Amino acid sequence: MNGIIITNQDIGHNAYKIKRFTEEGNKLGISLSHLVNDGSLAVLKDHKAVVKIPKCDFVIYLDKDIYLARILEKAGYRLFNKADFIKMCDDKMLTNIMCSDLDINMPKTIAGPLFYSPKLVGSNLKFLDTVIEELGLPLVFKKVYGSLGTGVYLCNTKEELVSLYTENCRQPIQFQEYIASSYGKSLRVLIVDGKIVGAFQRYNESDFRSNFGQTASSREFPLRGKYLETAEKIAKAFDIEYAGLDLLFGKNDEPILCEINSNAFFEEFEKTTKINVAKLFMEMIKRKMSKQHEQE
């Protein structure tokens, strides 16, 4: 069995994933190669999608380029994760919308209106009064696309909110209720093949974002009670093959969903919990692809 790992051009933290997937794949008789998505892997022409990667049994897709993901699926490649799931997780506002009827706690959220004209005027900023009235201050200003805590800001005043919106109004953003009880701490839950693998707590004494910067740390967390129930509900609702859930700590120790990460890094998780995530991931792929081959 052979597969291809696809990453974006800034390999960064994915280097650890490539190394670990390759190690555990070799033990299972799975050969993996690595390709960088540099814009040359596919083209639409002659009424069809032409894919320029070798044939393989599956693709481990560690990029967030949803267009290439969908082209590969259209051409018959099996992706881990699938394109629709990657899209839902990468678009944080879409995540909130898709989870809104799951009977789980989430921060109160408002989508920011996109702005296209050359210049903002006072009337374009008036809605921010409604945002403050609905969410209160401080509130969280979050770019819809981002990772590792970048693009997430805590607005303590209307002036800060106006400044951030003015600077970012031409890209998707969202405004969220600030969960003060979870300042500098969150829970990362890892899911593989629909099963809860484990969890660790992130904490940051220097920032409200638990996963931001060099001051962030982690420790193992025994997952139980409402936190386990919330994670299991989300895993089942989306038939998750691989993801990291970020849960906040609400008042009275109530779990609050912050984000779902389809391409969650697991180096910190493996080192903190001693759980072999790469092994579980590659075993899932072998199991699913073997079953698919049997049915063909």
Relative strand content: 25-35%
N-to-C CA distance: 15 Å
Number of helices: 10
Strand order of the largest sheet: 13-12-11-14-15
| Secondary structure tally: strands | 15
Question: Which stretches of 5+ consecutive residues score pLDDT under 50?
Answer: none
Shape: globular
Alpha-beta content class: alpha+beta
- Major β-sheet annotation: 5 strands, antiparallel
The residue fraction in helices comes out at 25-40%
The chain-level mean pLDDT equals 94
- What is the oligomeric state here? single chain
Order of helices and strands: EHEEEEHEHHEHHEEHEEEEHEEHH
Overall description:
- This protein has 296 residues and is α+β, with helices and mostly antiparallel strands.
- 34% of the residues lie in helices and 27% in strands.
- It has ten helices and 15 strands.
- The strands form four sheets. It has a five-stranded antiparallel β-sheet, with helices on both faces. Strands 2-1-5-6 form a four-stranded parallel β-sheet.
- Helix 1 (14-27) links the parallel strand 1 and strand 2 (31-36).
What are the defining features of this structure?
296 residues, 4-stranded parallel sheet
What's this, in brief?
With 296 residues, the protein is of the alpha+beta class.
